[in-house]
């Protein structure tokens, strides 16, 4: 591996779920890289496949109903074909996962200290005494006062924000290189959210952590991300440097996502799945996955899946839309007011 190789590389990742009604392509060919030390945000509405993408990366998809394929490499090592033992060693040691719901992620019958010490001794060959000292340090690191005292408390004695800090401490226990944080503030009171995000940002800088962050919140994206991957219906539809994507979104879905966020006054993000997956609730099987909702769709959008093309000639800002690449009329079309009825019928 060279210094310029990505720490994490996701290539054509699929996670297909077998259901009684057929196969659901919950993640459908997602590709992106995460360079060492950078923060990549996965953005999209609920149900767009962000969490399943992260679960697939870390081998946390437990259901036999889910078929995961493609390639995920971490420091050049393929994870999708790695055995459970190897994966378990990488998870926690090198890749840590911060879950959404601190209330459910901690075991209510064990003290915070028990859970933190267990996380430390699972990954490090140290005595219980050393692990306890380290646990105190970690609680202090995540901003909990009186850390020695807190070790003997149970999760229910903590507020949501304090429980999330404990989860962050557990995630840091083995000093991972990559932290995957899945909506780490979504279950928190709005007044606590920014403090937790600030904490994650501080820790990331201090520890030179690489961060893959799933979020609805564009304010978080704007303040933390180096690069953004926008997901819709299991597909990555746009990716690029944060400034480029925020200033000049190239995919009509990204545009509508941003408009809806602004329309909601910048609250904790849109949940528009029932509005956007298609008028009958389905995703087109061919062509562009967004075409049933796209105000700019034309007949060509029903053909092949649109390739990722540079937006406005910027090589590392790409969108899966026919208006990019060789087309010179992208901005003319995409910047015009949406035309909801362009006479495009859809008989899928
Ligand atoms: S390819 Fe067509 S349907 Fe898809 S986003 Fe672009 S214009 Fe819309």
UniProtKB/TrEMBL annotation:
Reactions mediated catalytically: Ni(2+)(out) + ATP + H2O = Ni(2+)(in) + ADP + phosphate + H(+)
Domain of life: Archaea
Entry's transmembrane regions: none
Database matches in SMART domains: AAA
UniProtKB keywords: ATP-binding, Cell membrane, Ion transport, Membrane, Nucleotide-binding, Translocase, Transport
Alphabetical GO biological process terms: peptide transport
Catalytic class of the enzyme: translocase
Pfam families assigned to the protein according to its UniProt record, in alphabetical order: ABC_tran (PF00005), oligo_HPY (PF08352)
Quaternary structure, from the entry: The complex is composed of two ATP-binding proteins (NikD and NikE), two transmembrane proteins (NikB and NikC) and a solute-binding protein (NikA).
Protein's name according to its UniProt entry: Nickel import system ATP-binding protein NikD
Species, as recorded: Natronosalvus rutilus
């Amino acid at each position: 591996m060279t210094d310029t190789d990505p720490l994490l590389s996701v290539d054509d990742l699929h996670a297909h779920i077998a259901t009684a009604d057929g196969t659901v392509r919950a993640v459908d060919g997602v590709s992106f890289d995460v360079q060492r030390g950078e923060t990549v945000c996965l953005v999209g509405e609920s149900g767009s496949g962000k969490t399943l993408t992260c679960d697939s990366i870390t081998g946390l998809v437990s259901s036999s109903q889910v078929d995961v394929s493609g390639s995920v490499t971490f420091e050049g090592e393929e994870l999708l074909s790695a055995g459970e033992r190897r994966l378990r060693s990488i998870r926690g040691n090198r890749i840590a996962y911060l879950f959404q719901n601190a209330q459910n992620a901690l075991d209510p019958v064990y003290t915070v200290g028990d859970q933190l010490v267990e996380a430390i001794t699972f990954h490090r060959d140290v005595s219980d005494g050393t692990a306890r000292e380290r646990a105190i340090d970690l609680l202090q690191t995540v901003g909990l006062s009186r850390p020695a005292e807190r070790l003997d408390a149970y999760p229910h004695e903590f507020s949501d924000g304090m429980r999330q800090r404990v989860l962050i401490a557990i995630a840091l226990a083995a000093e991972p290189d990559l932290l995957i944080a899945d909506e780490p503030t979504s279950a928190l009171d709005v007044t606590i959210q920014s403090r937790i995000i600030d904490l994650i940002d501080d820790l990331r800088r201090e520890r030179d952590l690489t961060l893959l962050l799933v979020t609805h919140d564009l304010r978080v994206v704007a303040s933390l991300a180096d690069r953004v991957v926008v997901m819709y219906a299991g597909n990555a539809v746009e990716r690029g440097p944060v400034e480029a994507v925020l200033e000049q979104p190239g995919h009509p879905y990204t545009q509508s996502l941003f408009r809806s966020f602004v329309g909601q006054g910048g609250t904790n993000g849109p949940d528009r799945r029932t509005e956007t997956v298609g008028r009958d609730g389905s995703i087109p099987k061919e062509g562009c996955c967004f075409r049933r909702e796209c105000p700019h769709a034309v007949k060509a959008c029903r053909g092949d899946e649109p390739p990722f093309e540079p937006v406005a000639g910027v090589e590392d800002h790409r969108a899966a839309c026919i208006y990019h690449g060789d087309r010179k009329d992208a901005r003319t079309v995409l910047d015009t007011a949406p035309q909801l009825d362009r006479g495009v019928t859809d008989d899928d």
